[in-house]
């Protein structure tokens, strides 16, 4: 780094230079504080528009493997439940009858039936899933933050976006997914959807990221930038790693305000109403369509909480759609917001529409789609506080991954006769996350610490059979 920078007066002022210093708040920009930035990767082969993207869908609460991807029709009724398996496009693969559209396109995704860990508490398990580790540290960056660092986007749009904030008592701490962890805030996601009704399924939905504070002109922005630059030349921390991270965030913030293409990507109302109907006019359906628009515009990674909404006569309780204990006055097999007959068909419609839409647009080969919860559900059906349900079960559960070169029609791993324990090919969170990195053409052993080698993106081993 140059220890003798040119005097301030000799530096040309441009949009990119304008946000090279000072806080966004001081400059008067009204962007969410969790917007993060682009940077040039330190690894070869990671730049350019050819890099892959990811839509990561969280089945927050934990989907029952026995009622979706790993049915056991020969088991006793108190284990197998009321639903029947149906054939898919893949010989020998059956899924729940509540997922007919996904069954028809099984050649586009892979199912893992041997996910496993030992944590049955929601917030801890969610933190583990986000970090891709069985024992994450409090400041470990999430998968999304690491992807953003190693595969920065090039468009004038946030490279990492989170749709629908976790809500309810099962949520992991905000710092585990709404910051960049020890990588810095430059790798935090832009959050859209802080409330349950703040999503594209709401009639009054709008993204406020493109608004500036009233009365803040370009002249005022320039004046504040000059003053901030002068102050930082006197500051001992003016050129630290943290300062550089902040610069990335500020640069992206400013570019976003001046990018018409970015603004259009956030305007889901531009979509054909028929396509919006195809995805489903509910929070998950519209958020997945929104995610496709963002990926198409150049966003590298979009996380989506798979909240499927409410029935017209229901009041909001939480976003924990898949935590189906029967504790929320809706049984796991009842047609309500916290029941499979309501949530799983909506998910089938939305995810199948996403895969079909990505395929039609030629984006599926370059877009990894992940569908997973923090754990599964108990093999035995039990009486919850109010209704019938299944409790938490991390020892064996399922996940679906698609796109980005993932082997379609594949089934990896096997559970026992009750889907209670892994029988063959156990998949840890480390191996699962390493597989996602590999699918995105990221070496899981890539260094992410300041020295470039002490901390790796993942300690897991990719599942080669799925790549």
From TrEMBL:
Coiled coil: none annotated. InterPro entries: Alkaline_phosphatase_core_sf, DUF1501, TAT_signal. Signal peptide: none annotated. This is DUF1501 domain-containing protein. It comes from Fuerstiella marisgermanici. The lineage of its organism: Bacteria, Pseudomonadati, Planctomycetota, Planctomycetia, Planctomycetales.
């Amino acid at each position: 780094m140059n220890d003798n920078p040119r005097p301030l007066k000799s530096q040309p002022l441009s949009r990119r230079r304008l946000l090279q210093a000072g806080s966004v708040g001081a400059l008067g920009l009204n962007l969410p504080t969790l917007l993060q930035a682009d940077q040039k990767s330190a690894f070869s082969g990671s730049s350019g528009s050819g890099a892959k993207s990811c839509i990561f869908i969280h089945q927050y609460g934990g989907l029952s493997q026995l009622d979706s991807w790993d049915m056991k029709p020969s088991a006793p009724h108190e284990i197998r439940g009321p639903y029947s398996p149906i054939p898919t496009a893949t010989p020998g693969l059956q899924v729940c009858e509540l997922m007919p559209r996904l069954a028809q396109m099984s050649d586009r995704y892979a199912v893992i039936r041997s996910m496993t860990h030992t944590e049955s508490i929601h917030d801890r398990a969610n933190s583990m899933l986000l970090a891709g580790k069985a024992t994450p540290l409090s400041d470990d960056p999430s998968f999304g933050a690491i992807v953003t660092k190693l595969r920065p986007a090039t468009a004038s749009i946030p490279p990492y976006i989170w749709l629908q904030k976790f809500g309810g008592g099962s949520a992991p701490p905000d710092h585990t997914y709404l910051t960049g962890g020890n990588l810095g805030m430059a790798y935090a996601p832009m959050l859209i959807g802080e409330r349950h009704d703040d999503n594209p399924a709401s009639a009054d939905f709008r993204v406020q990221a493109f608004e500036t504070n009233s009365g803040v002109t370009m002249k005022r922005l320039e004046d504040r930038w000059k003053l901030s630059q002068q102050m930082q030349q006197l500051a001992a921390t003016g050129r630290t790693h943290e300062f550089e991270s902040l610069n990335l965030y500020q640069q992206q913030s400013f570019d976003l305000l001046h990018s018409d293409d970015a603004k259009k990507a956030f305007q889901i109302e531009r979509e054909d109403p028929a396509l919006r109907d195809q995805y489903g006019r509910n929070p998950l359906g519209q958020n997945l369509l929104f995610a496709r628009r963002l990926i198409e515009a150049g966003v590298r990674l979009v996380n989506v909480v798979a909240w499927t909404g409410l029935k017209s006569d229901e009041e909001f309780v939480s976003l924990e759609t898949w935590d189906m204990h029967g504790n929320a006055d809706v049984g796991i097999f009842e047609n309500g917001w916290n029941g499979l007959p309501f949530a799983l068909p909506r998910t089938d419609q939305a995810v199948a529409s996403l895969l079909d839409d990505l395929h039609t647009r030629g984006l599926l080969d370059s877009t990894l789609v992940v569908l997973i919860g923090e754990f599964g559900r108990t093999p035995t059906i039990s009486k919850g506080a109010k209704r019938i349900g299944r409790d938490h079960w991390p020892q064996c559960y399922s996940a679906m991954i698609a796109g980005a070169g993932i082997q379609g029609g594949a089934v990896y791993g096997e559970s026992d006769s009750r889907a209670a324990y892994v029988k063959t090919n156990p998949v840890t969170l480390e191996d699962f996350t390493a597989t996602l990195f590999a699918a995105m053409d990221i070496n899981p052993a890539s260094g992410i610490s300041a020295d470039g080698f002490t901390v790796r993106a993942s300690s897991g081993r990719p599942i080669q059979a799925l790549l």
